[in-house]
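[#protein-structures] MJ: dropping ABC transporter permease here for a structure pass
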Amino acid sequence: MNFLELFDQDLISSVLRALIPILLAALGGMIAERAGIFNIGLEGMLLVGTFAAVAASYFAQNWIVGVLAGMLAGMLFSLILGYGAVYRKGDPIVLAIAMNILAVGMTSFLLVAIFQVQGVFQDPAIDGIPVWRIPVLADIPWIGPLFALTPLGYLALLLVPLLWIVLFRTPVGLRLRGVGERPLAAATMGVDPQRYQLGAVLASGALAGLGGAQLALGNVVQFTENMSAGRGWIAVVAVMLARAHPVGVLGAALLFGFADAIGFRLQSFGLPQQLTDAGPYVVTLLVLVLMSKRFRRTREAALA
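AK: finished. structure tokens for ABC transporter permease:
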């Protein structure tokens, strides 16, 4: 197979499939970051969302119920971070790490307790999210895959400009950013920082849960243990790389989605799966190294 054949329209479809769960989770992390809560619990929220979506879709045999269950599960799970960090003044990093560990154990336990299986749960009764093709537009070469997405795929892409408008062109966005940057000053203006921070964390959990639903019901139609497989951590890095800006988050998520898709396709060249699967995480590490260098230069310039 020619290396250039990797870059075709099918690659774009693969990139979009890999992009959507990461983008949804990263947008949630961005909202929490804007409110002053650094949410590294996206991995656990994403994983809880995958399990809830599959379980609800299986019992209801309806993908809409599964999506709503994934969103609700992510939101409820985020209450741990919201209550602990906002109202009890706990360390959000410690809380989020504990949540990520809890999510792995809890979903593995529930998989056995509810479905009596270990590792993978796959059943024809699970209703997957359909692909909505926009006639004519979906047949355009190269950009056609942008018009053949799941409902959550369209939602994720629409949220980018929508959240930009909310954050930078509405009073709600101004108050949210004020709470994250100057909570005491916001409080003197009559804004309740705790309410905004809790709402941001809940929104973060809901979007991460939707990302989990897309991963489990849109990309594949099954649940596997530790299914999030580091995508939540990649979403955290996307937020950091983009400095919590919606357009930047899209660009960062697109970078990681491309790394994931190209890694999978490189298996056709005989590369080991373990090596190609590491692609997104290698990119993540490189981004973190570059960010640390940029931060060091900025700090040295500020101290000079």
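MJ: nice. The two ends are 54 Å apart (CA to CA).
AK: one more thing. Residues 140 and 147 are 9 Å apart (CA to CA).
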